[in-house]
Design brief:
The complex is a heterodimer of chains A (389) and B (119). Helix content of chain A is 71%, strand content 1%. Chain A has 389 residues and is mainly α. Chain B has one domain: Rossmann fold (3-Layer(aba) Sandwich). In chain B, helix 2 packs parallel to helix 3. The chains are: A mainly alpha (389), B alpha/beta (119).
């Protein structure tokens, strides 16, 4: 803007009113210098990335065949240790090269079990890569530390369990997550003992990852023993996660403790408790839920009605009939659905009501009729398919 | 007997190649879906072992192509834990077997032998 003004001005000295020419020159020089520095940084960055890419490729090419051969070696040969080529030892003196090899070994270890997996672990130890991973545990950078934890548990370095366990209640979310996954990877359901002490929240995503990790281990019947203790945890996310565990592993024996969780002050806990009760229900559960209904907020009332539609009996018929007159249409609809599902003459009763009261009731009846017809159609299709098989 | 292995992890691909060669199979390898479709046309393998998540074309497209060939090709799917719905889709497309990662290489070989015997 300023140079344009300067050029357009009839008086060539007009610009000097605002800025002295020598300062303008300095300004332009600084601007150019900055521009050149930015270009240099971009170029350097691209160059380093490119160099890194080719370096990684070169190392992979050098080592790929040898590592693969080692992975496929017979167990009796592995016991004597691998013969490491000299070239390989030279390469591994470099920090970056060691990390590249660890990354490759970790990636393939995640995909294999059995003898090949054992060979990978032996190779990792024999190449001295464990020390490299252990050093990372002392790092102050969270991403380095969590990567170190991951490498150690993937490589089944169970002697590092104590050090990893200490990090299950780290104040850094990512370190904590990796450590919690790690202890479960190493010790299965026993690893869940971190729930005794964890004071930071366990996020939804972490809960999914923990449940997925647990799927790889066998439940040894000890879970029910720990659940009551975790349900009393001061950490609400621990309580929610415990309810999910009771649900996933159908812990019928903790039914009464889960019922107590319906009185928990945190709504998330109560919502999960209702969902869990569906999976571990006994003959009393539907009535317990029906009696608890009045104490709940709107969202969990809907969950209770959904639960009753799955596990309800004729005992809840009057409770549901009462809700057909609720002021909320959503409640009416859910109650109608539950009523039709648990009461033998539910559909007929809804039809009668639809005829008598019209309006919303007729729509509720039609909606439930649609659900009824579609589920009957699906089950008849399944039946005919199974017959044809 | 020719087997096509499709896997995008280089070291894993190499390991599968060497293991199957050791077992006496002729192995063709590639790391993306598009190359796999081309190789299936030109090499006529008896069996395809494929990952589900692949660059360019997915494992599902490879299964579809394998089952459309005049001489059907046996397909084993390598899937990660938690991909159950994709495995279901793979079976609907005609996959013959699947193995969940992490897996045992010897178990994979047993499954290959069993499928080839059937074929």
């Amino acid at each position: 803007m300023i140079p344009v003004f300067f050029l357009q001005s009839r008086n060539p000295n007009a610009f000097s009113k605002y800025i002295r020419p020598e300062y303008l020159v300095i300004g332009i020089e600084v601007l150019l210098a900055n521009f050149l520095v930015i270009i240099a940084i971009i170029y350097l960055n691209l160059y380093l990335r490119k160099r890194n890419f080719f370096y990684k490729k070169e190392i992979n090419q050098q080592l790929e065949a040898w590592i693969t051969k080692a992975i496929l070696d017979e167990p009796d040969k592995v016991e004597q240790g691998f013969e490491i080529p000299r070239k390989f030892n030279r390469v591994l003196k470099k920090f970056n090269a060691r990390q590249i090899v660890i990354d490759e070994l970790v990636a393939i270890r995640k995909e294999l079990t059995g003898a090949a997996a054992k060979n990978i672990i032996v190779l990792y130890e024999q190449l001295g890569l464990k020390k490299h991973s252990l050093n990372k545990l002392s790092s102050r950078k969270w991403h380095v530390k969590s990567k170190g934890i991951m490498e150690l548990y993937i490589m089944d370095q169970n002697d590092t369990l104590k050090r990893i366990y200490k990090n299950t209640n780290s104040n850094n979310e990512f370190i904590r997550m990796e450590a919690q996954i790690g202890v479960i990877h190493m010790t299965g359901f026993d690893g869940l003992r971190f729930l005794d002490v964890v004071s930071y929240p366990i996020t939804e995503w972490q809960q999914i990852k923990l449940l997925e990790q647990l799927r790889l281990s066998r439940e040894d019947g000890q879970l029910a023993m720990h659940i009551p203790k975790w349900l009393r945890s001061k950490n609400d996310t621990v309580v929610v996660f415990t309810l999910k565990l009771a649900d996933a592993y159908q812990q019928f024996s903790v039914h009464d403790e889960v019922v107590k969780a319906l009185q928990h002050p945190n709504e998330m806990v109560r919502i999960q408790a209702v969902k869990t009760l569906v999976r571990i229900a006994n003959t009393f559960t539907p009535q317990i839920l029906a009696e608890h209904y009045e104490n709940e907020h709107f969202t969990n009332r809907l969950n209770i009605l959904d639960a009753i539609s799955k596990i309800g009996t004729e005992e809840q018929a009057w409770f549901l009939i009462g809700l057909l007159d609720d002021e909320s249409d959503v409640i009416k609809l859910k109650a109608g659905k539950a009523f039709a599902a648990c009461f033998k003459y539910g559909m007929e009763a809804l039809e009668e009501r639809g005829k008598a009261k019209k309006g919303a009731y007729q729509k509720i009846y039609l909606h439930n009729l649609l659900i009824f017809v579609s589920s009957a159609f699906t089950s008849s299709l399944r039946e005919s398919a199974s017959k044809s098989i | 007997m020719k087997i096509l292995v499709v896997e995008d992890e280089a070291l894993m691909l190499k390991t599968l190649e060497m293991k199957l060669q050791k077992e006496g199979y002729e192995v063709i390898c590639c790391s993306d879906g598009r190359a796999a479709l081309e190789l299936m046309e030109s090499e006529n393998p008896l069996m395809v072992i494929t990952d589900i998540m692949l660059p360019y074309s997915s494992g599902i497209e490879i299964i579809r192509a394998a089952k459309q060939k005049p001489q059907p090709v046996a397909v084993i799917v390598l899937s990660a834990l938690g991909q159950e719905s994709t495995v279901e889709e793979a079976f609907e497309m005609g996959a013959d077997d699947y193995i969940t990662k992490p897996f045992n290489l010897n178990e994979l070989v047993i499954r290959i032998k069993r499928l080839l015997k059937k074929a």
